[in-house]
Amino acid sequence: MDRPAWAPDEVDMTSPSVARVYDYYLGGSHNFEADRAFADRVLDALPEMAAVAQANRAFLRRAVHQLCAHGIRQFLDLGSGIPTVGNVHEVAATACDDARVLYVDNDPIAVAHSRALLDGDPSTAVLAADLTDPRRILDDPLTRSHLDLSRPVAVLLVSVLHFVPDEADPAGIIAAYVAATAPGSHVVVSHASDEGGLSGASRAQNLYNRDRSPNRMRMRDTEEVAALLGDLELVEPGVVRIPLWRPESPVGPEAQRYPGLAAVARHAGRPGI
Length: 273
Hints:
- The protein has 10 helices and 8 strands.
- By secondary structure, it is an alpha/beta fold.
């Protein structure tokens, strides 16, 4: 199997990765045969998965626009993945041209491609780290130099927390990031869910929990996602299906069974979005 020029030597091309599978869902080209084969099995079980990935990207866009409109100028994108059209810095540039973005991922391809794409852009930086190690990320000199944690920050956890198992304490991970940020900071979350009885969502979760999957998946319901946010103040409309979070156009009744939830919550101290 020929290794493409964009793939670092340490990457195992025979095993799927979360970042590359998601890239495939979004129509990207930075994925291997193993990623596509796994993604196709998921799409057989849940044909809506590609649409879910697009809906996640649309939710991210809406949330970033809202945050920019309310004065947030710093974004910590955890588990940012492989850059595709509609990344945080691109979205923010359309709403607040003075935004600063720190992308964080533990996938070597995501990191390498992000650095190549963003080289020379002083408003962005890329850190190779695992989002489940907040101390490592928060104490890194790059984080400290690129973001001013004494001012409000938007902590983005979009389509990643369902890969953090209960035993890793996802609520505690979020709390650690929040504790390091200033009042007025926000946390943005989207999360896979099989709430509502969509059988394909459960089948997709089962595929992710098999041996050849890129990562085990833990879908959560509305109450569980709200619990991850602890004492943060949920902004309207709370924890809802992804298409229902401040939609820009009317959505149909099928949104009530959508296999994903979205929420934005505020660190108390100043008005939220």
